[in-house]
Amino acid sequence: MKKIIAFAGSNSSTSINHKLVEFVVSEIKGHDIRIINLVNYAMPMYSEDEEKNGFPGMAMGLNQEISEADALIISVNEHNGSWSAFFKNIIDWLSRLDRNFLEGKKILLMSTSPGKRGGLSSLEFGKNVLPRFGAEIVESFSFPSFYDNFSVESNTVTDETLLLGLNEVLSTFAHQI
């Protein structure tokens, strides 16, 4: 049984990426999985001036949690073709605290959006950036047109083809970790 931390890169109280994380976690069996909400890890906007004041306790706490996990499930939101400033700020703090804060971590990287591309630009950005910090992206999945393909009320994927693809990704991820 592996220890997995799951979270969305969004600070929205109605985050569809968080909803996707909750669904995915419900589908993975046989592992110790904990969903965290990054909003609970408040950090000032990163700057060299802020860093001179020391690292935020929340950054050190999150770094510790990540270091104790075997794998991560991350669903990144997309703002103007990239990560949200909120998520980028967290990554900035973590990478300044420990350049290789994701060393040895196997990652399932996902994204979703209301649009047909499903946050694909943000997903691709993450696939390029996270390995710089030691991450091993073992699987990725872009979930398009969230509101057309997911029922928030029943917490289910409504498109059978998407569900099959997602289940295949989850199976591969579970075997890789």
UniProtKB/TrEMBL annotation:
Pfam family, one: FMN_red
Gene3D superfamilies on file: 3.40.50.360
Membrane-traversing stretches: none
UniProt domain NADPH-dependent FMN reductase-like: residue ranges: 3-140
SUPFAM superfamilies: Flavoproteins
GO-annotated molecular function: FMN binding; oxidoreductase activity
Signal peptide: none
Gene Ontology cellular-component terms listed: cytosol
PANTHER family tied to this protein: CHROMATE REDUCTASE, NAD(P)H-DEPENDENT FMN REDUCTASE LOT6
Protein name: NADPH-dependent FMN reductase
Species: Aquimarina atlantica
